[in-house]
Amino acid sequence: MKNIFIALLIATTLSSCLNFAVRALAYPKWKPHYEIQDGQVFYLCPNAAGGSRLFVKGADPQSFEQLSDEWGKDKNSVYYAENKIKQYDAGSFQLLAHGFVCDKSSIYRNGWKQAGDPGTVIVFSKHFYMDQASVRYTRFWRDEKDNRHSIQKKIKSETYLRSMGASEALVNKIRRERSKRGWIPLPR
After folding, report:
1. Considering the entire predicted model, what is its pTM?
2. pLDDT tens digits, residue range 54-67?
3. For residue 63, what are the contacts with CB-CB under 8 A and spacing of at least 6?
4. What is the largest CA-CA distance in the chain?
């Protein structure tokens, strides 16, 4: 009985390893990326089954460029994965840090418009950024029904910044950056 159990355990482990190896070989780029094939743009996205190949509707293959694993643009539009993002201006679109992007008129994160001036924005983390006028906190999540939620808060003081989870190093960095640019400091 003990030998049968050990044999089943070894067989299950080997089967699992073989399944992973086959998927890895069949889908060697194990991260999302774009691909142009036969005059069309596709977004390749890994998943548990090995990956999905999604058509990027409306993308111009002649001018298309991949900006990151998940962002691309052509001469007319900006794309997040396979989705065309209509409100972004392709000519002025820029990737910032920690999932933030901007164009000439707005700042965005995870597709949500953020308050602030795109001309002076500085990103510190996925939750904290600032522009000339203020320091801000932002957070996104999905609930159990996959609905998207967002909160955005204007930081009014260094004490409030700490209460929102900022480390002392981040508080000092924000203080230095605002001082270096001649911007109004946060009250302590």
Report:
1. 0.71
2. 999 999 999 999 99
3. 74, 75, 76
4. 77
